[in-house]
Amino acid sequence: GGIGELDGRLTGCRACPRLVAWREEVAATKRAAFRDWEYWGRPVPGFGPHDAPLVVVGLAPAAHGGNRTGRMFTGDASGDFLFAALHAVGLASQPTATAPDDGLELYGVRVTSPVHCAPPENKPTPAERDTCRPWLAAEIGLLNPRAIVVLGAFGWQTLLPVLADAGWQLPRPRPRFGHKTVVTLRRAEPDAARPAAGGARGEGPGRDVADELHVIGCYHPSQRNTFTGRLTPPMLVDLLHQAADLAGL
Ligand code: SF4
């Protein structure tokens, strides 16, 4: 199956008891400002085209953001910051994301997260990260991207093993997360990987399996980083420009 089928299965996942309880409790109690909303209260799938050569990997949906709207990064302060920057780079049709029916479209980029359910205090446990990792692995495998922007160390630490399992050769020692750190990965066995790609694939982007994959670290646009000026809008725009270039956009 393709990304649509994957997303459909994901939204029924109940593998992490603590997160299932939290996402549903938040959906039932709500925040006063959103009392008229019917909260999504389920796993939040990635958002963006199914053939995106650029992927942005965050952390997890926000309790009153994605867990409310059902769309990744939609309806919270981090998303406001991210979509404004994506729009400035020409990767989004509009600078704001408020609701699933707001008309927002992404161009060539898909945003997703290593943990798909809202965690208490935005902190998934290592066990929850490991339980959710196969969803990320499946999504990245179907997208076959050229470049991945990773928002923060949590995503970085989750993604690198996924890429190693997918046949990408990781430098040793394993590169540490840093803002603007770019790691270019190559296939561990390029000749072995190639015949399985291309036309053999029923769905998905139909691109040949790339010889190179660029992984770019970026500070997470959390309020802890944006309020303190650790991550500014020009910094994020600059980094997304670079990432779009590396993705061939
Ligand atoms: Fe399933 Fe991931 Fe949600 Fe855990 S975090 S319940 S693995 S979708």
From TrEMBL:
Any coiled-coil regions, as ranges: none
> What are the alphabetically sorted keywords of the record?
4Fe-4S, DNA damage, DNA repair, Hydrolase, Iron, Iron-sulfur, Metal-binding
From the UniProt record, give one GO term of the biological process aspect: base-excision repair
UniProt keyword annotation of DNA damage present: yes
Domain of life assignment: Bacteria
Record-level Gene Ontology MF annotations:
4 iron, 4 sulfur cluster binding; DNA-deoxyinosine glycosylase activity; metal ion binding; uracil DNA N-glycosylase activity
- The question of whether Lipid metabolism is a record keyword is answered with no
Domain Uracil-DNA glycosylase-like, by residue range, is 45-240
Q: Which Gene3D superfamilies match?
A: Uracil-DNA glycosylase-like domain (3.40.470.10)
The record ties this protein, via Pfam families, to:
UDG
Record's SMART domains? UDG (SM00986), UreE_C (SM00987)
Q: Which PANTHER family match?
A: TYPE-5 URACIL-DNA GLYCOSYLASE (PTHR33693:SF3)
Identify its protein family.
Answer: Belongs to the uracil-DNA glycosylase (UDG) superfamily. Type 5 (UDGb) family.
Query: In its UniProt entry, what is this protein called?
Result: Type-5 uracil-DNA glycosylase
